[in-house]
């Protein structure tokens, strides 16, 4: 059963600790997936490794680096002069935040990278990321903008106001 009332808010220290654990968790995922891919494709099957194998590894490294670095900068805490925590940073575990999308990109890349040890065609699944970005762009920004009414809905006067205005005009004449 869902709790009643207002949802509890997190304190600065709790956000700071959870962000540190979240960053540690995703760093382990990044290092684990990269290690599996490197050992399988670039060490064991080195003679069969093509330029596409190396390109995929570089691409995943760039995606990991930019995503993790963005999450790290979002979660950067600030401290006062005496060393106490002033701000815990943005909550990385907040729903519908930018960090959620960055975590999804890291997980998608890790899954695709590990599965691509079997076939490089698995990299086509990474096209889900720009597809989801376009979907979110359409649903949240472009769709409402294109389908918005050009005339404001509140401009139609109701009957009472219209009758009042007509009476005022009749009194003037």
Model description:
- The radius of gyration is 27 Å and the shape is elongated.
- 63% of the residues lie in helices and 3% in strands.
- Helix 1 (12-44) runs antiparallel to helix 2 (51-74), helix 1 (12-44) packs parallel to helix 3 (98-115) and helix 2 runs antiparallel to helix 3.
- The protein is built from five helices and two strands, in the order H-H-E-E-H-H-H.
- The mean pLDDT is 84.
- It has a two-stranded antiparallel sheet with strand order 1-2.
- It is mostly helical and 173 residues long.
- It has helices at 12-44, 51-74, 98-115, 128-147, 159-172; strands spanning 78-79, 85-87.
Element pattern in H and E: HHEEHHH
Proportion of strand residues = under 5%
Oligomer: single chain
Q: Percent range for helical residues?
A: 55-70%
Using only CA atoms, what is the Rg? 27 Å
Q: What's the total count of β strands?
A: 2
Overall outline: elongated
Secondary structural class: mainly alpha
Which consecutive residue ranges, at least 5 long each, have pLDDT under 50? none
Mean pLDDT: 84
Q: How far apart are the termini?
A: 67 Å
**Going across the major beta sheet, what is the strand order?**
1-2
Number of helices: 5
Sketch the major β-sheet: 2 strands, antiparallel
Condensed summary:
This protein is 63% helix and 3% strand. It has helices at 12-44, 51-74, 98-115, 128-147, 159-172; strands at residues 78-79, 85-87.
Question: Which descriptors would you attach to this protein?
Answer:
mainly alpha; two-stranded antiparallel ribbon; elongated
């Amino acid at each position: 059963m869902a709790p009643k009332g207002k949802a509890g808010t997190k304190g600065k220290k709790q956000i700071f600790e959870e962000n540190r654990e979240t960053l540690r968790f995703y760093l382990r995922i990044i290092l684990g997936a990269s290690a599996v891919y490197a050992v399988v494709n670039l060490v064991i099957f080195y003679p069969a490794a093509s330029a596409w194998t190396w390109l995929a590894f570089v691409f995943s490294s760039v995606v990991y680096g930019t995503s993790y670095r963005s999450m790290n900068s979002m979660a950067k805490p600030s401290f006062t002069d005496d060393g106490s925590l002033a701000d815990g940073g943005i909550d990385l575990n907040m729903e519908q935040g930018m960090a959620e999308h960055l975590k999804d990109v890291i997980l998608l890349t890790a899954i695709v990278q590990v599965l691509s040890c079997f076939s490089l065609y698995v990299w086509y699944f990474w096209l889900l990321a720009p597809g989801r970005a376009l979907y979110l762009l359409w649903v949240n920004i472009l769709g409402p903008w294109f389908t918005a009414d050009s005339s404001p809905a509140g401009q139609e006067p109701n009957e009472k106001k219209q009758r009042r205005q007509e009476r005022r005009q009749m009194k003037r004449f």
